[in-house]
């Protein structure tokens, strides 16, 4: 399926005199982003306060932005707010620093290396499932977050126990909401101003810092622990002057791995279960595949490749509810992207969530249809029409890791238990914060699968 590059001058909604389109975005971020695509096609022009920006939906323009002209851009300036807590790690740093750290981390995320994590991932899921009781009600979103956090902690940093999960996830919850609110404000109150919200924000940030620095200090005290894991690699790394990473630099890398590494997978899994529970045909097909391929066993690096329908269910969940729903780039010099003429400092945005709802590439885009990914769909649509993990040099470094852990968790939970929404459960709504998550979580009743 081909795509025709948009060449017309970008247009967009007028907006208000002072805020431009910011209030419309704040009121309904996802509706605003999808309406832009419906009304203006491959690229739209918007204004947030005094800043004129462009939102790209055309796959070929995305290719220019993320691949062919990527050296003209840095991570979106508007997302600098997130750096207050995640720091200057691999996902937020720029230039040579980003390249150096990515080179250090990349070997731990190759397909060959990740396959060695499968047994550890399965052990963690099984340990969590052993605490579940048939007939009990559970907050599924919390349980899945515990699983994905424990997987990151064990496989990459040789850490055990839920105390690390709680000490990082709990303060992050507050920061996540406040950071999203500050990013969508025309004017944010500087953090040095002592307001109740700022004090709460800084207190949560201090708790996050304490938890991560404690992990670093414990490893320094016992350097042989986890020899060869990602944390040891980062701590032993030296630049061309023979200098190692500072504690702050280590903190930043650990923070982004813990936060981004567990939350996006947890959200995607939660969304997948939300659809499975409402689609008995999909559930039946999953059972048939698991019974045929796994016969009650946990997935391995070998059987993973045979679980094609399970993978398609996850792809479809990622399409409908892309955890990273909105991001972008800022130009570091004057540059043209198709019909867009950007000045240095101007920003280009794109929304995987909205792009994945384009009916040109995904007919009946609101329907949950894992079968759409059969027969090599991704080879038949433009390469950048489906970007759940981003693309290009700044694409998600852990995409293969995430797919393996999600397949393992989905299969092991689904083989052992049948999940149903608790009676009277409210509709599951989307909550777009730093990522796209189920609002107020998903509570389920656990039934033994018969």
TrEMBL record:
Keyword Membrane: no
Keywords annotated in UniProt: Heme, Iron, Metal-binding, Monooxygenase, Oxidoreductase
A Pfam short name: p450
Listed cofactors: heme
Taxonomic superkingdom: Bacteria
Binding site for heme: 396
MF annotations from Gene Ontology: heme binding; iron ion binding; monooxygenase activity; oxidoreductase activity, acting on paired donors, with incorporation or reduction of molecular oxygen
Protein name: Cytochrome P450
InterPro entries named among the record's database cross-references: Cyt_P450, Cyt_P450_CS, Cyt_P450_E_grp-I, Cyt_P450_sf, Cytochrome_P450_Monoox
UniProt key word DNA-binding: no
Family: Belongs to the cytochrome P450 family.
């Amino acid at each position: 399926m081909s795509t025709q590059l948009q060449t017309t001058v970008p247009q967009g909604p007028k907006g208000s005199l002072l805020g431009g389109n910011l209030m419309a975005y704040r009121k309904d971020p996802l509706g605003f982003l999808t309406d832009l695509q419906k009304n203006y096609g491959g690229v739209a022009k918007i204004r947030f306060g005094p800043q004129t920006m462009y939102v790209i939906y055309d796959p070929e323009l995305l290719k220019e932005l993320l691949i062919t002209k990527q050296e003209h851009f840095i991570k979106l300036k508007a997302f600098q707010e997130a750096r207050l807590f995640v720091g200057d790690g691999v996902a937020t740093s720029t230039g040579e620093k980003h390249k150096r750290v990515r080179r250090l981390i990349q070997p731990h995320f190759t397909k060959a290396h990740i396959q060695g994590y499968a047994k550890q991932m399965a052990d963690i899921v099984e340990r969590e499932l052993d605490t579940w009781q048939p007939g009990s009600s559970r907050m599924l979103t919390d349980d899945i977050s515990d699983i994905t956090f424990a997987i990151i902690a064990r496989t990459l940093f040789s850490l055990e126990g839920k105390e690390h999960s709680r000490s990082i996830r709990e303060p992050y919850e507050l920061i996540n909401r406040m950071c999203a609110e500050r990013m969508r404000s025309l004017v944010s109150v500087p953090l040095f101003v002592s307001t109740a919200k700022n004090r709460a924000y800084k207190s949560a940030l201090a708790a996050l810092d304490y938890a991560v620095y404690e992990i670093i200090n414990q490893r320094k005290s016992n350097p042989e622990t986890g020899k060869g894991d990602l944390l040891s690699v980062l701590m032993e790394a030296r630049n061309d002057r023979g200098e190692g990473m500072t504690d702050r630099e280590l903190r930043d890398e650990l923070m982004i791995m813990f936060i981004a590494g567990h939350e996006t997978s947890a959200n995607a899994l939660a969304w997948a279960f939300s659809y499975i529970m409402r689609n008995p045909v999909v559930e039946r097909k999953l059972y048939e595949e698991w019974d045929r391929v796994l016969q009650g066993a946990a997935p391995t690096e070998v059987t993973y490749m045979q679980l094609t329908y399970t993978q398609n269910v996850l792809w479809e969940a990622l399409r409908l509810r892309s955890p990273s729903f909105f991001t972008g780039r800022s130009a570091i010099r004057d540059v043209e992207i198709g019909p867009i003429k950007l000045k240095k400092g101007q920003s280009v945005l794109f929304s995987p969530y909205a792009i994945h709802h384009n009916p040109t590439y995904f007919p009946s885009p609101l329907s949950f249809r894992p079968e759409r990914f059969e027969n090599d769909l991704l080879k038949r649509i433009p390469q950048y029409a489906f970007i759940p993990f981003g693309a290009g040099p700044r694409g998600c470094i852990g995409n293969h890791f995430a797919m393996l852990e999600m397949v393992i968790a989905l299969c092991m939970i689904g083989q052992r238990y049948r999940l149903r929404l608790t009676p009277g459960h409210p509709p599951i709504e989307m909550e777009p914060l730093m990522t796209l998550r189920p609002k107020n979580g998903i509570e389920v009743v656990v039934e033994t699968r018969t």
